Amino acid sequence: MHQPNSKWSRRTRIDLQSNRFKRTLSSLPTHSFVLLPCSPFTNHPHQVRPLKKKKKNKRAKKPMATRALLLLREAPPWAVAGAAAAVALLWLAAWTLEWAWWTPRRLDRALRAQGLKGTRYRLFTGDVRENARLNREARTKPLPLGCHDIIPRVLPMLHKVVKENGTVSFTWFGPTPRVMIPDPESVKEVLSNKFGHFGKQQFSRAGKLLGDGVANHEGEKWAKHRRILNPAFHHEKIKKMLPVFATCCVDVINRWENSMSSEGSSEIDIWPEFQNLTGDVISRTAFGSSYQEGRRIFQLQGELAERLIQSFQAIFIPGYWFLPTKNNRRMREINREIHKILREIIGKREKAMKNGETNNDDLLGLLLESNMRQSNGNAKLGLTTEHVIEECKLFYFAGMETTSVLLTWTLVVLSMHPEWQEQAREEVLNHFGRARPDFESLNRLKIVTMILYEVLRLYPPVVLLSRRTYKGMELGGIKYPAGVNLLLPIIFIHHDPNIWGKDAGMFNPERFADGISNATKHQAAFFPFGGGPRICIGQNFALLEAKMALCTILQRFSFELSPSYTHAPYTVITLHPQHGAPIRLKKL
After folding, report:
1. Contact predicate 123/131, CB 8 Å
2. What is the pTM of this model?
3. DSSP assignment of 106-124, as one string?
4. Element containing residue 321 per DSSP (H, E)
5. Which chain regions cross the lipid bilayer (predicted)?
6. Ranges under pLDDT 70 in the chain
7. How many CB atoms lie within 10 A of CB 460?
């Protein structure tokens, strides 16, 4: 019997253990025979056995995700919870790092590459702390009487940055850069938004408490709300509200007259007086027969605004609204009560309209009528009750704030410039005498209109607007990446001597003698109510109300600043007098 030598056996063992040899064997037919050598150290004969083809494992390998799920199913609950928490924490950490560091760094590099200068980004807060510090300092320093250069006091942070870095510069609100756009033509392009590059900066959840209405919406939602609201603010509808304006103004005048001394004079803080007047006007024009409920809403909105101002003045903390503070809890309570009152008013009005009892002389009636006409039975085309509630809340805040601010600064400025007060009074008496002003004659008042425009130029109720870039775009030769806030600084443009001339900081209504379009070479340089398709829907309402109130006052009184008056304009939401506006009235 042949016995292979050890050298051959070693090679055979190596070959038998190799993968190549095994593949060769597996390729043979099922019943093939292979001669296997015996061990060289034994006398056993060679053994012959059939080699069966190895069956392939048809069981597919489970995907990793499936195996992970099986492992999770078999894992104890605490392990699953721990893994989920770890994943959530990792995601939150990555998102926070991107939001608070990488995105601001990327935006900062993009802006500086365009030649823009600005402040250095500080993690999370940006310039909020510095802005708060400068505001506190500015509010300790009142302005001289007769000074209308109010920017350093009203917007000290932006004034400082512009002075150091030029007009096109940027600051940081938290992790978001805010770029100043001081050119009227660029402002006009942003406000027109023809290509949809810009969007409204979204208010915080707390900020929306004052009214999450048409002013805050975008796209199709904004278009639907605006379309339904427009009929309520048509000039013919506003004309019918003039008697309500007159009644509210006469009530205030009578109250002032009753407070007069025997010499026919008195001292009154006109700031709260005008807030009450405009709140009264909105209550009556918005809700008509539901006037008393409207006054309760006005009181609640006033408290809500004060509490919001307190929260806005606090340090910037993301998610502050969700903290269970006493102030936050009270604001939620107020909001719920306002919603309850408005829901009851709207429900009664809708029921009356279905029964054929129409009352379309107030804003709510006009809004509901327009809503029914637009929807035509299709709920998707109209506004829900919650939408109507939010629009009513916005009526209150915007209608009250804008006109009360305008009237307050108008009387303050006319007290500083008695010569213009006399000219305005002479015009009013020539048109109306002591009679109630009518709609047509109010629109023909030239000097009164010039004065109101000049006050809106120097003391705009809203001192700046903001828009956010949705995508990368070019404006004024500068390429802005997505995620940048563009500040449209109304007050900077209104006070710019390059636009308005060397007397830009002076009160000179004569510049509007030939209308707004001829007041300056830049027609887009005057925009106290915004511009473009999103221009304030209630601007005609506010101006007509202001004219009626001013004319009624000029017919009955002359006025001057009280010795206790401190010229201290400051802004939180709108431009307020920090220490009120006490004036001395003298009956004519």
Report:
1. no
2. 0.84
3. HHHHHHHHTT-EEPPP-TT
4. none
5. 78-102
6. 1-62, 64-65, 67-73, 202-207, 289, 312-321, 358-360, 377-379
7. 26
- Determine the Cα–Cα distance for residues 21 and 27; give it in Å rounded to an integer: 10
- 270-287 vs 363-375: helix crossing angle, rounded to 10: 40
User: What pLDDT, in 10s, does the model give residues 126-179?
Assistant: 998 999 999 999 999 999 999 999 999 999 999 999 999 999 999 999 999 999
563 burial via Cβ count (<10 Å: 0-12, 13-18, 19+): exposed
What's the pLDDT at 206?
A: 63
Non-local (6+) Cβ contacts of 579 within 8 A are 142, 565, 566, 568
Cβ-proximal residues to 208 (8 Å cutoff; 6+ apart), any chain:
216
Q: Domain residues of the chain, as ranges?
A: 6-50
* 268 three-class SS: strand
CB atoms within 10 A of CB 459: 25
Strands 176-180 and 485-488: parallel
Tokens of 535: 């221009």
Residue 571, φ and ψ in degrees, nearest 5:
-125, 135
Question: Which residue's entry shows tokens 């009513």?
Answer: 392
DSSP string, 322-378: GS--HHHHHHHHHHHHHHHHHHHHHHHHHHHHHTT----SSHHHHHHHHHHHHHTT-
Amino acid making up residue 433 = G
The number of residues making up the chain comes to 588
Answer yes or no: are the C-beta atoms of 569 and 575 closer than 8 Å: yes
14: enclosing H helix or E strand? helix 6-17
Name the token pair of 533: 């398709």
> 209 is written with which tokens?
């408490």
Amino acid letter, 489: P
Q: Which residues pair with 266 in a beta bridge?
A: 585
Q: Which two tokens stand for residue 583?
A: 């004036």
The H-assigned helical ranges of 259-322 are: 270-287, 291-313
Burial of residue 336, with CB atoms counted within 10 A of its CB: 0-12 exposed, 13-18 middle, 19 or more buried: exposed
The answer for residues whose C-beta is within 8 angstroms of residue 404's C-beta and 6 or more apart is 271, 274, 275, 277, 278
Alpha helix ranges (H) inside 459-537: 490-494, 497-500
430: number of Cβ within 10 Å? 9
Task: For residue 536, say whether it is annotated as part of any ligand binding site.
Answer: yes
Neighbours of 259 (CB within 10 A): 12
Question: What pLDDT score was predicted for residue 241?
Answer: 93
- CA–CA distance, 308 with 210 (Å, rounded to integer): 9
